[in-house]
Write a structure and sequence with these properties.
This protein has 6 helices and 8 strands, in the order H-E-E-E-H-E-H-E-E-E-H-H-E-H. It is of the alpha+beta class and 242 residues long. The chain has a domain at 71-237: ph1033 like domains (ph1033 like fold, Roll), CATH 3.10.590. Strand 2 (84-85) and strand 3 form a beta hairpin. The longest helix has 15 residues, at 48-62. The radius of gyration is 18 Å and the shape is globular. This is Thymocyte nuclear protein 1.
Protein backbone atom coordinates (compact mmCIF):
# COMPACT_ATOMS: atom_id res chain seq x y z
CA UNK A 1 0.00 0.00 0.00
CA UNK A 2 1.31 3.52 -0.73
CA UNK A 3 1.39 4.68 2.88
CA UNK A 4 1.58 3.00 6.28
CA UNK A 5 -1.55 1.68 7.91
CA UNK A 6 -2.64 4.09 10.60
CA UNK A 7 -2.93 3.12 14.25
CA UNK A 8 -6.49 3.44 15.41
CA UNK A 9 -7.51 1.27 18.37
CA UNK A 10 -4.61 -1.01 19.17
CA UNK A 11 -1.76 -0.95 21.63
CA UNK A 12 -1.40 2.73 22.44
CA UNK A 13 0.24 3.87 25.63
CA UNK A 14 -1.19 6.55 27.88
CA UNK A 15 -0.99 10.19 26.88
CA UNK A 16 1.71 11.66 29.04
CA UNK A 17 -0.45 13.76 31.37
CA UNK A 18 -2.40 13.46 34.62
CA UNK A 19 -1.27 10.08 36.03
CA UNK A 20 -4.15 9.96 38.51
CA UNK A 21 -6.92 10.15 35.90
CA UNK A 22 -9.47 7.36 35.86
CA UNK A 23 -9.41 5.01 32.88
CA UNK A 24 -12.66 4.51 31.03
CA UNK A 25 -13.25 0.99 29.78
CA UNK A 26 -14.39 0.24 26.26
CA UNK A 27 -14.95 -3.14 24.65
CA UNK A 28 -13.42 -5.13 27.50
CA UNK A 29 -14.09 -8.37 25.65
CA UNK A 30 -11.95 -7.36 22.68
CA UNK A 31 -8.14 -7.20 22.64
CA UNK A 32 -8.27 -3.61 21.48
CA UNK A 33 -6.71 -0.83 23.47
CA UNK A 34 -6.48 2.94 23.20
CA UNK A 35 -4.57 5.48 25.22
CA UNK A 36 -6.11 7.04 28.29
CA UNK A 37 -6.82 10.64 27.39
CA UNK A 38 -5.18 12.51 30.22
CA UNK A 39 -4.22 16.08 30.99
CA UNK A 40 -3.21 18.14 33.97
CA UNK A 41 -6.40 18.59 35.94
CA UNK A 42 -7.55 22.19 35.55
CA UNK A 43 -9.64 23.99 38.15
CA UNK A 44 -13.30 23.14 37.74
CA UNK A 45 -15.31 26.05 36.47
CA UNK A 46 -12.44 27.71 34.60
CA UNK A 47 -14.52 27.85 31.42
CA UNK A 48 -17.87 28.97 32.79
CA UNK A 49 -17.72 32.47 31.36
CA UNK A 50 -16.85 31.11 27.93
CA UNK A 51 -19.70 28.59 28.14
CA UNK A 52 -22.20 31.25 29.20
CA UNK A 53 -21.18 33.55 26.35
CA UNK A 54 -21.39 30.68 23.88
CA UNK A 55 -24.77 29.64 25.29
CA UNK A 56 -26.19 33.16 24.89
CA UNK A 57 -25.05 33.24 21.27
CA UNK A 58 -26.54 29.81 20.50
CA UNK A 59 -29.82 30.62 22.25
CA UNK A 60 -30.18 33.80 20.24
CA UNK A 61 -29.63 31.76 17.07
CA UNK A 62 -32.04 28.97 18.01
CA UNK A 63 -34.61 30.79 20.11
CA UNK A 64 -33.30 29.00 23.22
CA UNK A 65 -34.84 25.68 22.24
CA UNK A 66 -33.14 22.50 23.39
CA UNK A 67 -32.30 20.14 20.56
CA UNK A 68 -32.43 16.41 21.12
CA UNK A 69 -29.11 14.61 21.20
CA UNK A 70 -28.00 13.34 17.81
CA UNK A 71 -24.50 12.62 16.60
CA UNK A 72 -23.64 14.30 13.32
CA UNK A 73 -19.92 15.04 13.68
CA UNK A 74 -16.91 12.99 14.70
CA UNK A 75 -13.51 12.99 16.34
CA UNK A 76 -10.81 10.82 14.77
CA UNK A 77 -7.62 9.99 16.64
CA UNK A 78 -4.33 9.26 14.97
CA UNK A 79 -0.72 9.19 16.13
CA UNK A 80 1.59 11.95 14.82
CA UNK A 81 4.75 10.34 16.18
CA UNK A 82 6.49 7.21 14.94
CA UNK A 83 5.66 3.96 16.71
CA UNK A 84 6.26 0.46 15.40
CA UNK A 85 3.48 -2.08 15.55
CA UNK A 86 4.36 -5.54 14.28
CA UNK A 87 7.23 -3.99 12.36
CA UNK A 88 5.18 -1.25 10.69
CA UNK A 89 5.27 2.44 11.58
CA UNK A 90 1.71 3.46 12.51
CA UNK A 91 2.46 7.20 12.49
CA UNK A 92 -0.10 9.28 10.60
CA UNK A 93 -0.33 13.00 11.30
CA UNK A 94 -2.53 15.61 9.70
CA UNK A 95 0.50 16.65 7.64
CA UNK A 96 0.65 13.08 6.31
CA UNK A 97 -2.99 13.42 5.27
CA UNK A 98 -2.30 16.74 3.54
CA UNK A 99 0.51 15.05 1.59
CA UNK A 100 -1.81 12.39 0.10
CA UNK A 101 -3.17 12.72 -3.45
CA UNK A 102 -6.14 15.09 -3.32
CA UNK A 103 -5.46 15.27 0.43
CA UNK A 104 -7.63 12.16 0.78
CA UNK A 105 -7.06 8.70 2.26
CA UNK A 106 -8.88 5.74 3.77
CA UNK A 107 -9.22 5.53 7.55
CA UNK A 108 -8.17 1.93 8.09
CA UNK A 109 -7.00 -0.23 10.96
CA UNK A 110 -9.95 0.17 13.34
CA UNK A 111 -10.23 -3.04 15.36
CA UNK A 112 -12.72 -2.12 18.05
CA UNK A 113 -16.37 -3.04 17.50
CA UNK A 114 -17.88 0.16 18.89
CA UNK A 115 -15.45 2.33 16.93
CA UNK A 116 -16.24 0.28 13.81
CA UNK A 117 -19.96 0.82 14.33
CA UNK A 118 -19.36 4.56 14.55
CA UNK A 119 -17.44 4.35 11.26
CA UNK A 120 -20.40 2.58 9.69
CA UNK A 121 -22.72 5.35 10.90
CA UNK A 122 -20.76 8.12 9.17
CA UNK A 123 -22.50 9.92 6.31
CA UNK A 124 -21.07 11.56 3.23
CA UNK A 125 -20.05 15.15 3.84
CA UNK A 126 -20.02 14.98 7.64
CA UNK A 127 -17.08 16.71 9.29
CA UNK A 128 -14.71 15.42 11.94
CA UNK A 129 -11.95 16.81 14.11
CA UNK A 130 -8.51 15.35 13.40
CA UNK A 131 -7.05 14.63 16.84
CA UNK A 132 -3.37 13.99 17.48
CA UNK A 133 -3.15 11.22 20.07
CA UNK A 134 -0.52 9.38 22.09
CA UNK A 135 1.95 12.24 21.88
CA UNK A 136 3.56 14.87 24.10
CA UNK A 137 0.53 17.16 23.90
CA UNK A 138 -2.61 15.57 22.46
CA UNK A 139 -5.32 17.70 20.95
CA UNK A 140 -7.26 18.86 17.90
CA UNK A 141 -5.26 20.10 14.93
CA UNK A 142 -7.69 20.23 12.02
CA UNK A 143 -10.94 19.31 10.31
CA UNK A 144 -11.62 16.57 7.77
CA UNK A 145 -14.76 15.43 6.00
CA UNK A 146 -16.17 12.04 5.05
CA UNK A 147 -15.91 11.59 1.29
CA UNK A 148 -16.77 7.87 1.08
CA UNK A 149 -19.04 5.98 3.46
CA UNK A 150 -18.08 2.70 5.11
CA UNK A 151 -16.75 -0.18 3.03
CA UNK A 152 -14.59 -3.23 3.87
CA UNK A 153 -11.16 -2.47 5.30
CA UNK A 154 -8.73 -4.31 3.03
CA UNK A 155 -6.00 -4.47 5.71
CA UNK A 156 -7.94 -7.15 7.60
CA UNK A 157 -7.10 -9.61 4.78
CA UNK A 158 -3.43 -8.60 4.35
CA UNK A 159 -1.22 -11.00 6.31
CA UNK A 160 1.65 -8.50 6.14
CA UNK A 161 -0.41 -5.71 7.68
CA UNK A 162 -0.27 -5.17 11.47
CA UNK A 163 -4.09 -5.09 11.51
CA UNK A 164 -4.54 -8.44 9.77
CA UNK A 165 -7.45 -10.45 11.18
CA UNK A 166 -7.35 -14.14 10.34
CA UNK A 167 -10.92 -14.62 11.57
CA UNK A 168 -12.43 -12.18 9.09
CA UNK A 169 -13.88 -13.51 5.82
CA UNK A 170 -14.19 -11.63 2.53
CA UNK A 171 -17.79 -12.78 2.16
CA UNK A 172 -18.58 -11.28 5.57
CA UNK A 173 -15.89 -8.75 6.56
CA UNK A 174 -15.64 -7.80 10.21
CA UNK A 175 -14.01 -4.43 9.76
CA UNK A 176 -14.84 -1.30 7.83
CA UNK A 177 -13.19 1.98 6.88
CA UNK A 178 -14.21 5.29 5.37
CA UNK A 179 -12.40 7.79 3.17
CA UNK A 180 -11.61 11.19 4.62
CA UNK A 181 -10.39 14.41 3.01
CA UNK A 182 -8.52 17.30 4.58
CA UNK A 183 -10.67 20.42 4.97
CA UNK A 184 -8.50 22.82 6.92
CA UNK A 185 -6.26 23.26 9.94
CA UNK A 186 -7.93 24.70 13.01
CA UNK A 187 -6.92 28.33 13.53
CA UNK A 188 -4.85 27.17 16.46
CA UNK A 189 -4.00 23.92 18.18
CA UNK A 190 -6.74 23.07 20.73
CA UNK A 191 -5.09 20.95 23.44
CA UNK A 192 -6.77 18.19 25.39
CA UNK A 193 -6.06 20.04 28.65
CA UNK A 194 -8.11 23.04 27.50
CA UNK A 195 -11.03 20.91 26.30
CA UNK A 196 -10.99 19.10 29.63
CA UNK A 197 -11.23 22.38 31.54
CA UNK A 198 -14.47 23.11 29.72
CA UNK A 199 -15.70 19.54 30.21
CA UNK A 200 -15.25 19.79 33.98
CA UNK A 201 -17.02 23.14 34.10
CA UNK A 202 -19.85 21.87 31.92
CA UNK A 203 -20.36 18.84 34.18
CA UNK A 204 -21.17 21.33 36.92
CA UNK A 205 -23.29 23.82 34.97
CA UNK A 206 -24.84 21.70 32.24
CA UNK A 207 -22.74 22.90 29.33
CA UNK A 208 -22.46 21.12 25.96
CA UNK A 209 -19.28 19.17 26.78
CA UNK A 210 -20.64 17.54 29.96
CA UNK A 211 -20.99 14.11 28.30
CA UNK A 212 -18.26 14.40 25.66
CA UNK A 213 -16.94 10.91 24.84
CA UNK A 214 -13.37 12.18 24.82
CA UNK A 215 -13.68 11.93 28.61
CA UNK A 216 -16.45 9.38 29.17
CA UNK A 217 -15.21 6.77 26.65
CA UNK A 218 -11.69 8.03 26.15
CA UNK A 219 -10.14 4.85 24.78
CA UNK A 220 -12.21 4.93 21.61
CA UNK A 221 -10.30 6.23 18.59
CA UNK A 222 -13.52 7.01 16.68
CA UNK A 223 -15.93 9.16 18.66
CA UNK A 224 -19.24 10.82 17.76
CA UNK A 225 -19.98 14.46 18.56
CA UNK A 226 -23.28 16.24 18.86
CA UNK A 227 -23.77 19.46 16.92
CA UNK A 228 -23.47 21.37 20.21
CA UNK A 229 -20.21 19.65 21.15
CA UNK A 230 -18.73 20.26 17.72
CA UNK A 231 -19.79 23.92 17.63
CA UNK A 232 -18.47 24.66 21.12
CA UNK A 233 -15.08 23.02 20.52
CA UNK A 234 -14.80 24.79 17.17
CA UNK A 235 -15.50 28.12 18.89
CA UNK A 236 -12.37 27.60 20.98
CA UNK A 237 -10.17 28.23 17.96
CA UNK A 238 -11.22 31.89 18.14
CA UNK A 239 -10.05 32.25 21.75
CA UNK A 240 -6.55 32.99 22.92
CA UNK A 241 -4.98 29.98 24.63
CA UNK A 242 -5.06 30.15 28.41
Amino acid sequence: MPWPSRKRDKGAVADKKEPDAKIAKTEEETPDKEEDEKSTKPPAGSSKSGWKNWKKTKESDSGGEESKITYCHWLLKSEPESRLEKGADVKFSIDDLKAQPNQTTFWDGVRNYQARNFLRAMKLGQQAFFYHSNCKEPGIVGIVKIVKEAYPDHTQFDQKDPHYDSSSRKENPKWSMVDVQFVRMTKRFIPLSEIKAHHLAHKADGGPLKNMMLFTRQRLSIQPLTQEEFDFVLSLEEEKPH
